[in-house]
Amino acid sequence: MVFADLLFLYFFLPVCLICYFITRNANIRNIVLIVFSMIFYAWGEPVWVSILAVSALVDYCNGRVIEKHPEGWQAKLALAWSLIFNLGLLFGFKYTGFFVENLNNAAGLNIPVPHIKLPIGISFYTFQTISYTIDCYWGKVKPQKSFLKFLMYVSLFPQLVAGPIVRYSVIAEEIEDRKTTINDISEGFSRIILGLGKKVLIANSLSTVVTSLFGNADNKYSAIDSLSVLGTWYGAILVGLWYYFDFSGYSDIAIGLGRIFGFHFDENFKYPFICKTISEFWQRWHISLSSFFRDYVLYIPIFGKRRKYGGLFLVWFLTGLWHGASWNFVFWGLYYGLFIMMEMMIGKKKMKKMPVPAAHIYTKTIIFLGFGIFYFESLPKLCKFFKGLIGLNGNSFCDSYTANIFMGNIFLFIAAIFFAMPVIPKIREKAFRKPGSAYIFQSAGVICNALILIASSLLLLNNTNNPFLYFRF
Q: Which residues are catalytic?
């Protein structure tokens, strides 16, 4: 089941809310969330519920072992088992085929390549349970004594299948005791509608334009061979905007749903395109993932020592590989690691002295090129993309095809750029400073929310398949 679906919006969610708020008993509310989360997850793939439940059970037990033997070898064994089990689970489902395929190519073997279907959300909930076990071992959180409460944390449907990666420490107190206020409900629904609008009104529309320029994501068809230089750059920019509205739209809905149920998830996207350095971009983009690798991988000793740049490239190698079992994702991760290393060598003070226009040109060029690497899983197509950027495909600088697509979608393009910037929050901040303006702004917000919900619902009537992009990862 997905959020951008009429069945979810007008049946599943209302029924869940009724069952949740009809009682004030915290234990019953937890059970309601577990049941509806399992239904949500099992809607398309019921067989994988068992993997989710076993994963939760394993790390619940690991946490209890660490609690009983905090200084003993048992705690180390529990931590090791958590890493082996979860990373083994992730590798088995996600990377086995990729590993066998590359082994065949490198060694000239002919081992049958397994085609294993990836359980939705496994990249997210395995990282959540790993972070829980590590934090228990480090003494940052107290292990959860109730398996049902821990299962609720792991399976919570707002963030289960595509993040954000919610650490146990963020919602530990709210698992035990939480309240939902009228403001929580209001802010929660507003956030849900905002995320829905990002996905249905903007991201889906951008994906159609990208397909007309670059072809399908599976690369069975591609127009990159004949695309002009400006068309290639335009497509790269649109891919970046599309991914932003799709990824951040899901996070908005997840955060809004969590808010309604009394959970306060951390922000996952903070207007990343206003960044002036690549390091800042990753402080604003998919924050839960980048912070996970920063906190749990960056300072791992390599060959017995903590190595500054070695740890950095390990982080970005794993960040790329986490996104998919394909070489383009690995190149994408190392690509960002290279620029972040360069910024570290230059130093923060010198980077801040760069003129603002130059900083934006530098960052946006690197970022949108990066989205091109991310998009083309086929390496031959990726090479043609890079050639197309500088005219080495033998195509024109601009053509009527690119011009027609640009003019036909100019209002979509302008709207995407506008809403990718923190313009509305700035207006809202100023409005609430002036007496009387806050009421007008709130009234306008209610009307806009209603219009976005109606428009999104109407578009969903004719579109039955709206998976979010991170479902693939």
A: 323
